[in-house]
Amino acid sequence: MQLDKISAAGSGTWSSPFSVSQAISNQSGAAYSVEGYVVGQPVSQTSVLTSGFPNDYALALADSPNETNTSDMVFVQIPSAFRSSYGLQSNPGLMGQKLKVTGNLTAYFSHPGVKSTTAFEVVQGDSDPTDPGDPPVYEEYYSTAEGKTGSNLKSALHNIIDDHTTLSYSEVWGALRNTDEDPANSNNVLLLYSGRSQSKFTNGGNVDDWNREHVWAKSHGDFGTAQGPGTDLHHLRPTDVTVNSSRGNLDFDNGGGEHGEAPGNYYDGDSWEPRDEVKGDVARMIFYMAVRYEGDSGELDLELNNYVNNGSAPYHGKMSVLLEWHAEDPVDSREIRRNNIIFEDYQGNRNPFIDHPEWAGMIW
C-alpha cells in the first residue's frame, strides 16, 4: 500500500480511519482506526455467520454491506467491556450498519483482524449505500462556483478540483477493482464498452483480459501513463484488451461499423461511438479532463474542440456530439457511486458534471 493512497482513503486516525481494504493491507500490529460495514460474526478463518449468532465475541467488517467474500473482510475482536453494545448476539440490528473501531491491526482467527479493541462507534447515516438516491450535494465543496457561467465557471471548477492525491499507474489496477465493481457480483468488474462482467483479477495484456482504458486518449497531449492525467481515475476505466485496441486514440463521434466483440459500439477511421448506456458517462469524463487540466502548475492544457483526427494535439472531440450524449444518457447510480469512491477513497476530488450536469451547457 502506497502512502499517497493511504492519505487519500484514510490515515488510520479516528477522524480519518482506514478502510477495510487498507486494514487488510496494513497488518503491522500497530493501533489504528478502521471503518466498515458489519457483515457477520466470524467463527473460523473462512466462516462468517450472518444469523444465529452464538455469542458477542467478534464481528466482521467489510467495505460493502453486501460482501460475502471473507478475504475482503477484517475480523474484529470485541473485548468484554463492549460486548453488550456491539456483540451481534445482543445487537443483531448492527448487521449492515457502518462501524468505526480502534485496535491493533493483527491476525484474529488466523485472518486479517483488529484485536485489543479500545473504541467502537456506529457511524450514523451510512447504513444503506446500495441506494445512492439523488446525486450528492456538496454545496460547500462547490461554493466558489456559485453564480458563475462560461469561462468563469470553468475556472472556478478547475480551482476546486485541481489539487488531489495522485496514484501510480500500478495502483490504478486495484482502484478500478473498487470503482468499477459489478453491483451484481462483487468478484467482478464491469467493462466500459462491452458491458461484460469479468473477474477482477483477469487484468493484463492478453486477449480477453481487461486493461486500463484512458477515455481521454493519452496520445491527445502525449501524457502517457505519468502521474496526473495518465493516472486520473475520473477517466480511467476497465475495458477488454482488444476492444481497447480498436478504440485506440479515436475521437468520439457518431457512426461507423459495429464492433464485433462489443455490440452497440461503432467505429471508423477517425471516431468511436460507445454503446448508448455509457455515452453520457464518456462525455462527462471528457468534460472533467478539460476542466481539471488547464495548463497551470506545469501541467497540460487539455481542451474540447469540435473536430476528429486530433492526433497528438491536446484536444478531444467532438464537442457537439459529446454534449448530445450528455443530455441523452443522464447520470446514473453507478456514476454517482464511482464519483463518491474516487472522492472519498482515492483522489479527494470530484467530477462536477456528475454532481451538476447542468454545468456542461453553461460552459460549452
In helices, the fraction of residues equals: 25-40%
Taken in chain order, the helices and strands follow as HHEEEEHEEHHEEEEEHEEEEHEEHHHH
Strand order of the largest sheet: 1-3-4-6-5
Overall number of domains = 2
Instruction: Please describe the biggest sheet, giving its number of strands, its sense, and whether it closes into a barrel.
Output: 5 strands, mixed, barrel
Report the mean per-residue pLDDT as an integer: 91
N-to-C CA distance: 40 Å
What characteristics describe this protein?
11 helices, 364 residues, 2 domains, single chain, four-stranded mixed sheet, 17 strands, elongated, alpha+beta, disordered N terminus, five-stranded mixed beta barrel, OB fold (Dihydrolipoamide Acetyltransferase, E2P)
